[in-house]
Amino acid sequence: MTKYSFFIALATLSIWTTACKSSNNDSTDSGSPPVDDTGPASEVDVVYSASTFTVDLRPDEVYGQGQTHSGWNAPDPEEMDLKLDLYVPDNDGTERPLVVFTHGGAWTEGDKGSNGRLFCDFFAERGFVCASINYRLLEDYGTIPLDYANATLAIEDLTNGQREKFFAMYPAGRDCKAAVRWLVANASEIGVNPDAIALIGGSAGSFNSIAMDVSEPEDYRDEISLEEDPTLVSTNLDVEYEIQAVVNHWGGAGMIQFLGDVYGFDRFDSTDAPILIVHGTEDESVDFSNAEELVEIYTNVGVHNELVSLQEEGHGAWSATVDGKSLIELSFDFVTEQLELTVVD
């Protein structure tokens, strides 16, 4: 079987499911000790432990454009707008921390208005700006590099449908990184501190989030020329960013590992952001071994990581609790700690 067998289960999933039961006997393991690799952001506005602000929802902000084809790399592509929803607290903050939520759906479906709304409302009510992003999905047939396409075709034991989902990962990564660049480019206007950014994802969105952090600025960008994809000019190509924390719900390292295999690199290193890894032990879509692999990877490069094992939970266990806390509350605690934010009771 292919080395990507751990990843194929997700590639066959049409959309991640939501588990209904709650777990109160889950375990939290801390990986390597905290490493000061990204550093605290300066002059970040305070946040609040309780809901404090009403939230201004700014839907369908256009963060760039992307090409869509009738089939993979078919001629005469069209352009489509790439959109995100902004959740802004009704305060006068100018240096607010930023959370970027990326939805799941196995790169075939899903939307920025699903679980992203729950997380973004929670964080924005407490003083964060939150963005929930859409990205091109499989049926948008975004432009992919020839090397990437050929490497995908070379993987053994994949069905045609599974190969297409591997194809879809590339434009997804390209778009998600473009969204963060747009947010950083417009930080002053939005009122966020571009040095205080956390990423949160679910399922495919977590694979995306890890790639958004771990990849280098040129990844998911320079593999395609402006001649091949003129819409790249709309994506703030000269902007760079650093991430201070990642929250991974039932995802894994496979997306960035595959890009690394295609182009001959390993992108994980000591500059990666600390990560919270939340995963059900009975996940049949993205096996729990993906979480264990992440712990090993981040520990080996000296980056702080914490594993929350959701005992007897499967994929998409959004309603699970850990020691009486929801997964949103766990995310809030981890993000505020890693960004070294002042939290007002």
Word description of this protein:
The chain has helices at about 5-10, 115-125, 145-155, 160-185, 185-190, 205-215, 255-265, 290-300, 325-340, and strands at about 25-30, 45-50, 55-70, 80-90, 95-100, 130-135, 190-200, 245-250, 275-280, 305-310, 320, 325, 345. It has about 350 residues and is of the alpha/beta class. The strands form three sheets. A nine-stranded mixed sheet has the order 1-10-9-8-7-5-6-4-3, sandwiched between helices. It has a two-stranded parallel ribbon with strand order 2-13. Helix 7 links the parallel strand 8 and strand 9 (about 275-280). Helix 3 (about 145-155) runs antiparallel to helix 4 and helix 4 (about 160-185) packs across helix 6. It starts with a helix and ends with a strand.
What is the number of helical segments per DSSP (H or I, 4+ residues)?
Answer: 9
Strand sequence of the main sheet, in spatial order? 1-10-9-8-7-5-6-4-3
Low confidence ranges: 12-25, 32-40
Helix fraction bin: 25-40%
Q: Write the element-wise H/E pattern from the N-terminal end onward.
A: HEEEEEHEHHHEHEHEHEEEHE
Q: How many strand units? A: 13
**Major β-sheet profile:** 9 strands, mixed
Mean pLDDT: 90
Termini gap? 52 Å
Shape: globular
- Structural class, by secondary structure, is alpha/beta
| SS strand fraction | 15-25%
Radius of gyration: 19 Å
